[in-house]
Amino acid sequence: MMVRNIYKSALLFGSASVIALMPGVASAQSASADVSARAPAADGDEGLNDIVVVGEKRETTLQRAPLSITVVGNDELQRRNANELNDLNGIVPGLSISKSEGSARIIAIRGIGYETSANPNSQPGVAFHINGVYVAHVMALAQDLLDVERVEVLRGPQGTVFGQTSTGGAINVITKKPVLGEASGDVALSYGNYNYAKARAGLNIPISDTMAARVSAQYLRHDGYGKSIGVANRSEYDLDDANNLGLRGSLLWQPSSAFTAILSAQTFDTDRNGALQKNVLDTTPGARTVDQDYPSTFELKTRMVDLSLAYDLGEFATLKSVTAYQYMLKEQTADTDRLAGSFYVHTVRWNDRSKAFTQEVSLASQAGGPLDWTVGGFYLRQRALKDYLSLGSGPALTYQGMPIVFATYSPYQHTSVAGYGQATYHATDALSLTAGLRYSWDKTTGQPINFFNQFGPANPRRVTSDAFTGKLGVDYQITPTNMVYATLSRGYKPSGVNFNQGSVQVPQSYKKEMVDALEIGTKNEFFDRKVRLNASGFYYWYDDYQYTAEDPRVNSGGSWNIPHAEIYGAEFEASILPMDGLRFDGMLSLAKGEFKGDFFTIDSQGALAIRRAQAIALGLPQPYVTGYGYNPSIIAAVQNNLQNTNGNKVAKLPGVQGNFSTTYDADVGAGQLTLRGEVVYRGSFNSRIFDGGPLDRVPAYTLFNASVQYAPHDSAFTFSVSAQNLFDRNGVNSLFTDPYGALTTSVEYVNPRQVFGTVSYRF
């Protein structure tokens, strides 16, 4: 009760801040109090910088954006050695990114994420975009960030302008654009321990008065952060290494002030060994040393081409079109049981392929009038395939003489169509009212082609879902630098199909997921913009939470729905410029989420123990093999031991997250010296919807980062040294329990201490 009261008190504080800080504390517009101030420090006399964001697809400043948004600029990304989305952990309030089975990236914002990653046609809860283009396959989230200007993270349901898959929020990567009439470029070389080497370069090329191009490249490699000692004919087998190449090019054509066209293409390739995933039963000394007898590998290819058109219709509106084609191929092998010995489960083939076409058209009013409005439409067509083959030691099932644990070859398609509109009415200079509505329709079809096909060929499966989502909001600008706001919004994640056959409990399709969210907050700047303080409180009503469900019959599970959950919390951010050259930044996030009402399901780890015990009781030959899970008596035993989820914690929701950093700039000799220190805390959370102790509880960690930068005056060079995880803590990023095959639980760690120096040159 005491813990619950603490969280409720924090929520009330975040809410009460709207009133308590009104005498001059209410900051920028309807944007959640988590709008991060992580931009370069401003000149001491001018206070904190304004930061321009796209937000809800309308350009505004960070502190005036009508939504909860955090912006992380390119300089911050480079200083933190943030090469991919997972490296954003610890920067953004409420954001938690977990590694999953060495390849996927599970993004959760305020506890709303992606608990159905084992089902390839299911959709995430946080939408990922590059320049407004929705990235259709979650495996593509493992690509590096290329030629980035900034990353915008929107918290809370974004059901109006971002639509389906944004129940938790949205992440939009904004890349650098070509600039007319400017020949410029930048080059940076980094080297550090683990033979870490990174080279990146960008070049802006003026072609004519109306045309310019920008090209960029980035290569990253390093030795493994961990190793396996069990792979045959190898004394050590590197894990968690890198070998990545990214290329990006953009062509800008602006024949008049009214029309702009940008054609962009981006590629990313990685070919490396697999991730370090340590089985909780592995007793090999050292957190980053494992004993696994099968070599893990990982290859990822992503391709994207997009065309963005904007036409200024004068005082009426601006018409925009964004067209994109995406391709993704992931090929992976893994020691699935993550142990060496006579019992084994090896994933010898795990391929995901995806091709997607998206088209969005929008019409937005010009800024400055009493009514700002946006209307638009969105279309997505995705065709994808999951091809999976896992070999095991069980004699009961074989395929061409090989013992099979699990196999599937399942194509699927996803079509999404939506129309939306949102308007903000500026009733007075201080008071604004916002209303938005979106209608989404989704269809998913799939063809289960599983090896375990004792029931004959499966019929194609098809499911459709639709929803009205949107938002209502009000914000009041008490002073030019103080604002309060309240927002009621709804998010939607579509339904989908399962590829299971012969299941006893888990259905062949699952329901759509809905979230209603209330948020109130305040955003403020004081003392000539030397202090920024933002606070917000939120409460979510969650219906039909999608999760990966085990079935009483082994290898027959899939995605399912828990009827109700509630999530609430508070978030705080502050930036202070106490004196010229000195800056403090900090954030604190508190959250709690529980499932409400009775719902009975199966814990796969508990089911594994029941199956083994029942096999012994039946006198079946030992050791236990997966094939025993098809025995009717064993199926009945599992079905008689369901667990009630009522009161269980929502997965991937740290109770506490915090970040504090100090930056100091000073003229030293012939240049500018910048010193920065940072401490990051992430509290514990459950990796699944169950609380299986060490099988589910991800422990808290505290990490320290530091950097030193020197920029000589009147020079294009900059020199820096950065250290991430300075004290080399073995922080646990995530736990992963395989829902199929071995049903093992493994640990994935944060990166070890990484120290590297960088020389950059701009012209």
TrEMBL record:
Compartments, as annotated in UniProt: Cell outer membrane
GO terms under cellular component: cell outer membrane
Keywords tagged on the record: Cell outer membrane, Ion transport, Iron, Iron transport, Membrane, Signal, TonB box, Transmembrane, Transmembrane beta strand, Transport
InterPro entries to which the protein is assigned, alphabetical: Beta-barrel_TonB, Beta-barrel_TonB_sf, Plug_dom, TonB-dep_rcpt-like
Gene Ontology BP term (one): iron ion transport
Domain TonB-dependent receptor-like beta-barrel: 270-726
Signal sequence residues: 1-28
Domain TonB-dependent receptor plug: 62-170
Membrane topology: Multi-pass membrane protein
SUPFAM superfamilies for this protein: Porins
CDD domains (alphabetical): ligand_gated_channel
Protein family according to the UniProt entry: Belongs to the TonB-dependent receptor family.
Protein name stated in the entry: TonB-denpendent receptor
Organism, as annotated: Sphingomonas sanxanigenens DSM 19645 = NX02
Organism lineage string: Bacteria, Pseudomonadati, Pseudomonadota, Alphaproteobacteria, Sphingomonadales
